[in-house]
RNA sequence: GCGGGCGUGGCGAAACUGGUAGACGCAACGGACUUAAAAUCCGUUUCUCUCUGAGAGUGCCGGUUCGAACCCGGCCGCCCGCACCA
């Protein structure tokens, strides 16, 4: 028996060095084997990683290693989402350069990731802040522009008047700038947009092709795109000249509705405060202008929007009802969004909560037009609130008696056929919630938008031969605002078209642009063109993409749009970048606070004699809080280095895969990591014991005894089942199977120690050990290499094949069937695997326990489910 | 408010998608080995009872079925996404 413990601290760096020296994780594009691309969402280099960051990389690594063993040419790269605001904040706080800070973090985190023993092809590493990467992105931007997928328009931003800077939504807290505390204003700025809304329909339809995505994510994207079918309706303005109205008002107002059936319940029209007509009226109406101003000032936080009261301003205008109803007043209302539909609505208070609130406040008529099923029209009232359900139309002339869908159809037809001017009054329309993607950021640390603004030529693309537009290094962060804007020379250039003095665009791109194609960059070999069509077509789509649910919408939707657009521009052949998606759960950890409410690191807490948590050294009592996502601020983090030093990273990897289903949050506990450690040692011992009992590799004997055969069956079943579990990413189940097999193997070894080790048993023991090591190799790769060596196998297990399963060993000759009487389990019977139902039935009826239960009577019915169960109905 | 998901021992969870509920692990308890400890190994561990056996049991109530954790209806509780989208 082996007595040495497995020394992970010594073995792990040794194997990592060997892997590294032999370059076995370097992927070649000319490898003829079938491809498999596994990718974890690349990290933002924020400083240091903690063990909580490791889970998705470990999961991806298990898949990568498994697929390699299964004979695939695996691409498993890593890079850095390296642009972004935190680098600028760090620059301000630490008086350092964002690039320096970023690259230092990358260096640290790269070493930490390497510590985890991940089988990554580091030769393809990229950082999005590298000019070779963002230069290509600038080229893509210009192609988008040329192809009509990018454009510029005015759009509102959050403006901090003290810091003189634009704020991201998350930097606005309770309507104030997070740093300055100043009240945030909304300002209009000319900004660049990608026309993602034009792709709404294809992005929606494409979701149906993504069969290996979680339903939840597809649903979230579906809701985000927010397709709705409705009707555009033109309401003619009644031009009875009212006092003080400006000349040249438009003849009509167009609204969008999904409830045209409620047209006869309409009691007002409402315009958005940003509607062109509102602006026209406000120009000569100071009271309205003030009202619009008030609406604009409304808070930006969700809490404020939620509780905001409905407010309206009666313009004094009236419109005519298109179908012989009463004239309707036109309001401007704070709850009508300009960005959706036409920026104007008709209000039907009886059947819409918002309209109901509004009508109640301004004392407008509330006419019910939809009667719920089985309700008497005389007693039906909407005084307590609107009715938004299905029903039958009434109070609605031509629609009376129709169901809601039938009424929608009839109104649509009627309005389509009613021609006014040269166009129908009503037109069916599809609307999407999805808006265009604003990519301009008034920041330094991002990809510069390659545009030059000329007073005569307007915005002009930077010529191809002048790309990339590099960020200047000599910038200062001692004043608020965008350093590119105040740089002494950077932005002053000549117009590429007319040669006159011009200015560079000083906005940089949203970092979601950077992450929308990095997976395509990994496809081409290091040093080659960043976006090579052939390479992208070879490797994409990503076969298995792994990351957090927090990216379920934006990153994944933007990437889908980006790839589709690259496809239209002829840059890639595929339409969907990620064939398989998995969203993993977080690692959570208890939180600790001392008596003064200060957060404590886990290593600052221990148990006293009575098991109470106390502070190390002082013995001061400690309060334990609920497990939460690991975060620096709450100090509930575990650094990978500590785990590596005490238990080894294989233990950490095993722990992260075990027990909890991968999509759920998993709690990091010391008991858990100790359990993983015990099991790692157990595998080591089992393999060592097997080698002692069966020291030599021998040819497979022809015949096997019962014990040997049983062990072989278990081993082959293990390899088959774990393969399936890993394919389905059910790592916790795979781990449980390995545990169960270890128990079986342990018993077999104990029995073998007592008796003779016959050649067939020796073969079976060695085979079992080899299978065990092969099966755990993707999960605990260092331990597996060490065991591989103990087994005397040549080469590295990292390059070995998955254990070869003999299908004959998977099928048992006989099966044990449970026997139920009236649905309750009463016994069991062993029958041949291929026994016919009639044979089983006969054997069951012959049993004593059945005879007793039947007590002489004939059974009413016997259900035999082959290889499953027998149920006797007495 | 709208949309979606989930409720199984002291805990994390399995259950081949309608067929032996609780595999496997953690924790706990008992035992072996040891001068002792660590490590390891062997047991016990859903609940109840009249305990060599029997009954109940997958949030609660009901239904479908020979058979339900799984399907259907209605409650209760928790979690997530969206949020004035007309």
From TrEMBL:
Q: Where is the Methionyl/Valyl/Leucyl/Isoleucyl-tRNA synthetase anticodon-binding domain?
A: 712-839
Q: Which residues cross the membrane?
A: none
Q: Which Pfam families match?
A: Anticodon_1 (PF08264), tRNA-synt_1 (PF00133), tRNA-synt_1_2 (PF13603), tRNA-synt_1g (PF09334)
| Motif window: 'HIGH' region | 43-53
Q: Which domain of life is it from?
A: Bacteria
Compartment(s)? Cytoplasm
Q: CDD domains per the record?
A: Anticodon_Ia_Leu_BEm (cd07958), LeuRS_core (cd00812)
Q: Which biological process terms from the Gene Ontology are attached to this UniProt entry?
A: leucyl-tRNA aminoacylation
Q: Could you give a GO molecular-function term held by this entry?
A: ATP binding
* Catalytic activity field: tRNA(Leu) + L-leucine + ATP = L-leucyl-tRNA(Leu) + AMP + diphosphate
**Domain Methionyl/Leucyl tRNA synthetase: where?**
38-172
Q: Note the InterPro entries from the entry.
A: aa-tRNA-synth_I_CS, aa-tRNA-synth_Ia, Leu-tRNA-ligase, Leu_tRNA-synth_edit, M/V/L/I-tRNA-synth_anticd-bd, Methionyl/Leucyl_tRNA_Synth, Rossmann-like_a/b/a_fold, tRNAsynth_Ia_anticodon-bd
The Enzyme Commission number assigned here is: 6.1.1.4
Residue limits of the Leucyl-tRNA synthetase editing domain?
222-414
GO cellular component terms, alphabetically, are:
cytosol
Keyword terms: Aminoacyl-tRNA synthetase, ATP-binding, Cytoplasm, Ligase, Nucleotide-binding, Protein biosynthesis
- Give the residues the record marks as binding ATP: 632
PANTHER family membership? LEUCINE--TRNA LIGASE, MITOCHONDRIAL (PTHR43740:SF2), LEUCYL-TRNA SYNTHETASE (PTHR43740)
- Name listed for the protein in its UniProt record: Leucine--tRNA ligase
Q: Which species is this record about? A: Ancylobacter dichloromethanicus
């Amino acid at each position: 028996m082996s007595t040495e413990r497995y020394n992970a601290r010594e073995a792990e760096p040794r194997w990592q060095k060997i892997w590294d020296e032999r370059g076995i994780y370097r992927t070649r594009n000319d490898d003829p084997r079938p491809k498999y691309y596994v990718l974890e969402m690349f990290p933002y280099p924020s400083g240091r990683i903690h063990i909580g960051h490791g889970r998705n990389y470990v999961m991806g690594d298990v898949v990568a290693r498994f697929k390699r063993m299964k004979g695939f040419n695996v691409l498993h790269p890593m890079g850095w989402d390296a642009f972004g605001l935190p680098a600028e904040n760090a620059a301000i706080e630490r008086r350092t350069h964002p690039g320096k800070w970023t690259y230092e973090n990358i260096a640290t985190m790269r070493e930490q990731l390497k510590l985890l023993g991940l089988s990554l092809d580091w030769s393809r590493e990229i950082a999005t802040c590298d000019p070779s990467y963002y230069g290509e992105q600038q080229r893509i931007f210009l192609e988008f522009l040329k192809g009509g997928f990018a454009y510029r328009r005015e759009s509102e931003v959050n403006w901090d008047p003290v810091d003189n800077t634009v704020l991201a939504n998350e930097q606005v807290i309770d309507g104030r700038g997070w740093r300055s505390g100043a009240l945030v204003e909304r300002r209009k700025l000319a900004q660049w947009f990608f026309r993602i809304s034009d792709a709404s329909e294809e992005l929606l339809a494409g979701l149906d092709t993504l069969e290996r995505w979680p339903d939840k994510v597809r649903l979230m994207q579906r809701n985000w795109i927010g397709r709705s079918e409705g009707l555009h309706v033109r309401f003619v303005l009644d031009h009875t000249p009212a006092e003080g109205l400006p000349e040249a008002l438009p003849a009509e107002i167009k609204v969008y509705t999904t409830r045209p059936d409620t047209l006869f319940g309409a009691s007002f029209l409402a315009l958005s405060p940003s509607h062109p007509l509102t602006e026209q009226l406000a120009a000569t109406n100071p009271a309205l202008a003030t009202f619009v101003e008030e609406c604009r000032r409304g808070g930006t936080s969700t809490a404020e929007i939620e509780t905001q009261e409905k407010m309206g301003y009666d313009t004094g205008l009236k419109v005519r009802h298109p179908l012989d109803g009463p004239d309707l007043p036109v309001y401007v209302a704070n709850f009508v969004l300009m960005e959706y539909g036409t920026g104007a609505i008709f209000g039907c208070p009886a059947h819409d909560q918002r309209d109901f609130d509004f009508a109640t406040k301004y004392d407008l008529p509330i006419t019910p037009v939809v009667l719920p099923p089985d309700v008497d029209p005389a007693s039906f009232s909407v005084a307590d609130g609107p009715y938004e359900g299905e029903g039958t139309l009434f109070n609605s002339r031509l629609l009376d008696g129709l169901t809601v869908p039938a009424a929608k159809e009839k109104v649509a037809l009627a309005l389509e056929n009613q021609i006014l001017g040269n166009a129908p009054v009503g037109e069916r329309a599809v609307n999407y919630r999805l808006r265009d993607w604003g990519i301009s950021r008034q920041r330094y640390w991002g990809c510069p938008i390659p545009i030059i603004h000329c007073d005569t030529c307007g915005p002009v693309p930077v010529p191809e031969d002048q790309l990339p537009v590099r960020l200047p290094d000599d910038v200062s962060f001692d004043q608020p605002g965008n350093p590119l804007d105040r740089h002494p020379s950077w932005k002053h250039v000549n117009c590429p078209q007319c040669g006159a003095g011009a200015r560079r665009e000083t906005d940089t791109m949203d970092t979601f642009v950077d992450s929308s194609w990095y997976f395509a960059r990994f496809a081409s070999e290091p040093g080659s063109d960043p976006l090579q069509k052939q390479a992208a077509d070879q490797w994409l789509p990503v076969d298995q993409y792994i990351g957090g649910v927090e990216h379920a919408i934006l990153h994944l939707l933007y990437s889908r749009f980006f790839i589709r657009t690259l496809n239209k521009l002829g840059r890639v052949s595929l339409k969907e970048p990620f064939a398989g998606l998995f969203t993993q759960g977080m690692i959570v950890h208890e939180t600790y606070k001392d008596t003064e409410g200060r957060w404590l690191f886990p290593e600052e807490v221990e148990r006293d004699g009575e098991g109470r948590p106390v502070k190390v050294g002082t013995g001061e009592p400690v309060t334990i809080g609920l497990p939460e996502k690991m975060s620096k601020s709450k100090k509930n983090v575990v650094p990978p280095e500590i785990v590596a030093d005490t238990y080894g990273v294989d233990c950490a990897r095993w722990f992260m895969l075990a027990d909890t289903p991968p999509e759920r949050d998993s709690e990091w506990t010391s008991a858990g990591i100790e359990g993983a450690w015990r099991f790692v040692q157990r595998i080591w011992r089992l393999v060592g014991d097997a080698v002692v009992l069966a020291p030599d590799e021998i040819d497979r004997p022809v015949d096997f005894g019962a014990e040997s055969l049983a062990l072989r069956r278990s081993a082959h079943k293990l390899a088959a089942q774990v393969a399936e579990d890993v394919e389905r990413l059910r790592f916790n189940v795979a781990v449980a199977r390995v545990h169960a097999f270890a128990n079986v193997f342990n018993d077999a070894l104990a029995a073998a120690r007592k008796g003779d080790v016959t050649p067939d048993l020796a073969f079976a023991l060695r085979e079992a050990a080899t299978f065990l090591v092969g099966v755990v190799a993707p999960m605990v790769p260092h331990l597996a290499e060490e065991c591989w060596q103990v087994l005397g196998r040549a080469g590295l297990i990292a390059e070995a094949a998955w254990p070869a399963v003999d299908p004959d060993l998977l099928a048992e000759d006989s099966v044990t069937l449970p026997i139920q009487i009236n649905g309750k389990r009463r016994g069991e019977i062993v029958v041949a695997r291929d026994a016919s139902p009639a044979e089983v039935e006969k054997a069951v009826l012959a049993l004593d326990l059945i005879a007793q239960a039947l007590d002489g009577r004939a059974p009413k019915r016997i259900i035999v489910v082959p290889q499953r169960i027998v149920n006797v109905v007495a």
